[in-house]
């Protein structure tokens, strides 16, 4: 374990975790900007273009081809970081998880209060009538997935580029961060806005940053750990 981190956790009663893609890489999900990540794959268009609202509207079938291949994850399981955070919530220390990830692994690990800033691949809705569909419906569909009730397009509940964050989710995340005495930031480069801007709402005692690479928040942190987040959070890590 990391003694300095464990001491901060023990001394805190209102912990909030703010995480990004690096939290899920240890579950086998590539992050967007790593060497093996989504941004280093070869497609007809850059990923940030294909994951934009305008591309979805203009090239819908191509969007879904990319989406099925790269954003739907098969067989991923929660890792040590997800499990530790869920355990801290059960202990009453951790009050919320704020995540930029769309894979649902925090909930799979047992976390209950999770603010998914960018939505989830596990939820999909008909754009016309609102009927809910699970991820398997999208995965197994061909071409553009259509609602079985009204024929409308079934769209993932994922925030695309050019789309705004859900106001209720954003408000909940802000309130959680404002009330935290310890904010643990992990697995994120803090390069994606407006999500990264949420750190400005933290006024608690201690900020911890856990990331393999330096981040813009390092200079404000009480503790910076440049290591895999699963190793840092695992109770038996060395």
UniProtKB/TrEMBL annotation:
Cofactors: Zn(2+)
Main location: cytoplasm
Record-annotated active site: 118
Entry's cofactor comment: Binds 1 zinc ion per subunit.
Cell compartment(s), UniProt: Cytoplasm
Residues engaged in binding NAD(+): 21, 25, 32-33, 100, 102-103, 118, 188-189, 211, 229
EC number(s) on file: 2.3.1.286
Residues noted as binding Zn(2+) in the record, renumbered to the chain: 126, 129, 147, 150
Gene3D superfamilies to which the protein is assigned, alphabetical: SIR2/SIRT2 'Small Domain (3.30.1600.10), TPP-binding domain (3.40.50.1220)
All copies of domain Deacetylase sirtuin-type, residue ranges: 1-238
This protein's UniProt keywords: Cytoplasm, Metal-binding, NAD, Transferase, Zinc
Zinc listed as a keyword: yes
Catalytic function, reaction form: N(6)-acetyl-L-lysyl-[protein] + NAD(+) + H2O = 2''-O-acetyl-ADP-D-ribose + nicotinamide + L-lysyl-[protein]
PANTHER family the record matches: NAD-DEPENDENT PROTEIN DEACYLASE, NAD-DEPENDENT PROTEIN DEACYLASE SIRTUIN-5, MITOCHONDRIAL-RELATED
Family statement drawn from the similarity comment of this UniProt entry: Belongs to the sirtuin family. Class U subfamily.
Protein name as it appears in the record: NAD-dependent protein deacetylase
């Amino acid at each position: 374990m990391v003694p300095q981190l464990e001491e901060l956790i023990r001394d805190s009663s209102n912990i909030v975790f703010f995480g990004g893609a690096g939290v899920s890489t240890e579950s086998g999900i590539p992050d967007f900007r790593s060497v093996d990540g989504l941004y280093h794959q070869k497609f007809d268009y850059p990923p940030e273009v294909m994951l934009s609202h305008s591309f979805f509207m203009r090239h819908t079938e191509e969007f879904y081809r990319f989406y099925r291949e790269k954003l739907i994850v098969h067989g991923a399981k929660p890792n040590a970081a997800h499990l530790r955070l869920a355990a801290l919530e059960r202990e009453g220390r951790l009050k919320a998880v704020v995540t930029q990830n769309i894979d649902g692994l925090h909930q799979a690990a047992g976390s209950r209060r999770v603010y998914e800033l960018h939505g989830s691949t596990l939820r999909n809705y008909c754009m016309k009538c609102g009927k809910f569909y699970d991820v398997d419906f999208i995965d197994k569909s061909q071409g553009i997935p259509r609602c079985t009730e009204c024929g409308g397009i079934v769209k993932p509940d994922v925030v695309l580029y050019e789309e705004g964050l859900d106001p209720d989710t954003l408000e909940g995340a802000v309130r959680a961060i404002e009330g935290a005495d310890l904010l643990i930031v992990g697995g994120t480069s803090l390069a994606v806005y407006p999500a990264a801007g949420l750190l400005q709402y933290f006024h608690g005692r201690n900020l911890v940053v856990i990331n393999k690479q330096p981040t813009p928040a390092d200079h404000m942190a009480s503790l910076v750990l440049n290591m895999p987040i699963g190793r840092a959070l695992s109770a038996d890590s060395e």
